[in-house]
Design a protein that fits this description.
13 helices, alpha/beta, eight-stranded parallel sheet, single chain, 2 domains, binds N-carbamoyl-L-aspartate, Urease, subunit C, domain 1, binds zinc ion, 425 residues
């Protein structure tokens, strides 16, 4: 393994935001400070001037479609997309084919994932077959290596079943990650219910679907004392509900994705299914509420909900499946929306995209200190670029940010002391 010396880089983690040199050796950070001598000519020296170094990002909500839908993505293409986006750790949702309710399948997947250079974690299902009928065996899933439990893609149908799931998850010591949606309210809706759905004459997805089940699950978490994380928050109502449950002392947290703080449902007027995901793009008032939730700490993490689908599936605006890819744009989108507008410091972004997700999943939170793993990214904060779907490393190109210009580009990703990705023009 190469010894790597990064010179004159802006090092940013929960402990520091300072210019220094960083020495990587044998997969660890061997030194950090001023004027580290390159005494050995075998060192690879990287000029970090103008770049920021931060711990590799952790995205606790991705869909790698492996096994079963690998024409959309697999663990290798998903990991390549992650590395290109500066994401060095992920939590994969269990709505694979078949779903991840089976310890053997979890073991097999995690074994294959070891070769990717990404710290790949897997969630087990809450219910057998994602059917919302019987609870899965959480102790067995935990023994197989799952990091959390979720039926993402579908809600748990009743409060009773959710309470039982939370109680069992608490016993197993696993967090529950909940997709909050009321399918009776959705009733075939495909975009946010409002002026745009009316104008297009398509069925809408009322925000009450998200808000009511979020409230239901938060109440169940308060009652059971279990750890609950709310998925992909998109509305003012669910942000407010999480804020209240935190104030009431719940062991609760939540996440949002860049499309919910950057975009609104006006984009659906294009009638392009690449702008469709679940929950849907909402209104300017929701964007405002999500932004406030990030700024006041109600929203703990920025995730992607990276949900690859093929161009063929996305061709029909009304019939296409929901979901957008996001691993290669999440940091750039976040820097553009929050750092370059002066709303957040870089250390806040490290907290939202590394520290908090890892803490919530009970994984070690990395810093750039001596002895820590050499898992870090180099970012050109001021480099402007335009999102070109054809240049993505993901097997699917259904990005909601196509043609948009962001400021901030991941230039290099290092994990286990090895350079896994280098940006090339
Ligand atoms: C996800 C998918 O495609 O698996 N789609 C989406 O629109 N978010 C499912 C999910 O996250 O609920
Ligand atoms: Zn890990
Ligand atoms: Zn979901
Ligand atoms: Zn999802």
């Amino acid at each position: 393994m190469e010894t790597i010396l990064i010179r004159n880089v802006r090092a940013v983690d929960s402990l520091r935001d300072a210019e220094c040199d960083i020495l990587l050796k044998d997969g660890r950070i061997a030194a950090i400070g001023q004027n580290i001598a390159a005494e050995d000519t075998a060192f690879r020296v990287i000029d970090g001037s103008g770049l920021a170094a931060m711990p590799g990002l952790f995205d606790m909500h991705v869909h790698f479609r492996d096994p079963g839908q690998t024409h959309k993505e697999d663990v290798n293409t998903g990991s390549a997309a992650a590395l290109a986006g500066g994401v060095t750790g992920v939590l994969c949702m269990p709505n694979t084919t078949p779903p991840m309710d089976n310890p053997e399948q979890v073991r097999e997947f995690l074994e294959r994932a070891k070769k990717t250079g990404v710290d790949v974690h897997q969630a087990g299902t809450l219910t057998v077959g994602l059917k919302g009928e019987r609870l899965a065996d959480y102790e067995a899933l935990k023994a197989a290596g799952v990091t959390a439990l979720s039926d993402d893609g579908r809600p748990v149908p009743t409060a009773e079943l959710m309470e039982q799931a939370l109680a069992n998850a608490k016993k197993a010591g696993l967090p529950v990650v909940s997709h909050c949606e009321d399918l009776a309210i959705i009733d075939g809706g495909i975009i946010n219910k409002g002026a745009v759905s009316e104008q297009l004459g398509v069925r809408g997805m009322d925000r009450l679907s998200e808000d009511s089940v979020t409230e239901r699950d938060l109440q169940a978490a308060l009652k059971t004392g279990a750890q609950l994380h709310i998925c992909h928050v998109s509305t003012r109502g669910s942000t407010d509900a999480v804020r209240r449950a935190k104030a009431a002392g719940g062991n609760v947290s939540c996440e949002t994705a860049p499309h919910y703080f950057l975009l609104t449902d006006e984009l659906l007027l294009k009638q392009d299914a690449d702008y469709r995901m679940n929950p849907p793009l909402r209104t300017p008032d929701d964007v405002q509420a999500i932004t406030e939730g990030i700024l006041d700490g109600t929203i703990d993490c920025i995730i992607t909900d990276h949900a690859p689908h093929t161009a063929e599936e996305k061709a029909d605006f009304r019939k296409a499946p929901n979901g957008v890819v996001g691993l290669e744009t999440s940091l750039a989108a976040t820097l553009t929306a929050f750092y370059h507008t002066g709303k957040l410091q870089l250390q806040d972004i490290v907290r939202l995209m590394h520290d908090n997700p890892k803490r919530l999943l009970h994984l070690p939170v990395n810093t750039l200190s001596v002895g820590e793993p050499a898992d870090l990214i180099l970012v050109d904060l001021n480099r402007t670029w335009t999102v070109d779907p054809d240049k993505l490393h993901s097997r699917s190109h259904n990005t909601v940010f196509k043609g948009m210009t962001f400021t901030g580009k991941v230039m290099m990703t290092i994990t286990g002391g090895e350079i896994r990705y280098t940006y090339e023009e």
